[in-house]
Amino acid sequence: MGMVAGEERRFRLTRSYASIDYLELVMPRYAIRGGDVILKCNHSVPPEQLYKVEWQKAGTKIFQYIKGRSPPFRFFTTSGAELNKNYSNEKQLQLSKLDFSASGLYSCVVSMETPIFSKDSESHMLTVIEPQNRDPIVTFNKGTYEIGEILLANCTTAPARPPPHITWLINGEKVIFCESSFEHLIFSEKKRKKYVT
Predict the structure, then answer these.
(1) Whose CA is closest to 40, among 73, 63, 67, 21?
(2) Residues whose CB is less than 8 angstroms from the CB of residue 195 and which lie 6 or more positions away in sequence, other chains included
(3) Fewer Cβ within 10 Å of end Cβ, the chain: N or C?
(4) If DSSP codes are grouped into helix, strand and coil, which group holds residue 27?
(5) Could you write out the DSSP letters of every residue in 147-194?
(6) How many CA atoms within 13 Å lie on the side-chain side of 71?
(7) Torsion sign across C-alpha atoms 12, 15, 18, 20
């Protein structure tokens, strides 16, 4: 009986449990259309225990590293981006020539060889944007206005995604809109001017 109890105690002490203490996908929240983005899979698994690293978009495999396989890297197609083979390895993945359809949730999965264990990172959202390539253009229906006149103005922005949010300012003060018209008070040194549009 004493021998069996001793063996059980020794088994409990030497048994190894798999764990990955640290796993994080590091990537930007936004990327510019036509540009590149790097997704880094940072983890605490020592190289000798690392078996596999996999990157996913919305749960679908897009890039995989398996230790000991020849070649160790496998690339899968993904919409809206090209996988850059020159800058992708077991630590990072580079997506190039981004288009809007590359937007989505990305994650990485790390697997240990001995003991066998896998862990998924938290998913992170990537949004591909297209910034404006020029300043907005503001035009008026005439050059000068009298106090109390209706001011008509148009603001035209360059194409962009997401669409630009327009904030109107008159003499540096934000305009408050009320349905289809607004009233804005402008203070000068000597008198108060009221513009109604």
Answers:
(1) 63
(2) 145, 147, 149, 151, 170, 183, 184, 186
(3) N
(4) coil
(5) TTPBP-EEEEPPP-BSPPPP--EETTEEPPEETTEEEEEEE-SS-EEE
(6) 8
(7) positive
Cα–Cα nearest to 142, from 150, 131, 134? 150
What SS3 class is residue 22? coil
Closest CA to 40 of 127, 129, 124, 119: 124
Query: What residues contact residue 140 under an 8 Å CB cut-off, 6+ apart?
Result: 151, 152, 153, 154
CA–CA distance, 112 with 105 (Å, rounded to integer): 24
- Domain locations along the chain: 21-129, 137-196
Q: Where are the beta strands (DSSP E) in the chain?
A: 23-26, 30-32, 37-43, 50-57, 60-66, 73-75, 82-83, 92-96, 104-112, 117-120, 124-129, 137-140, 153-156, 169-170, 173-174, 177-178, 181-187, 192-196
Residue type, 20: I
Query: Distance of CA 91 to CAs 52, 69, 87, 195, Å?
Result: 11, 16, 10, 59
Both tokens assigned to 97: 């020539």
Residue whose entry in the numeric block shows the structure tokens 């404006």: 132
pLDDT < 70 stretches in the chain: 1-18, 178-197
Reduced to 3 states (helix: H, G, I; strand: E, B; else coil), residue 137 is strand
Neighbouring CB atoms inside 10 A of 59's CB total 9
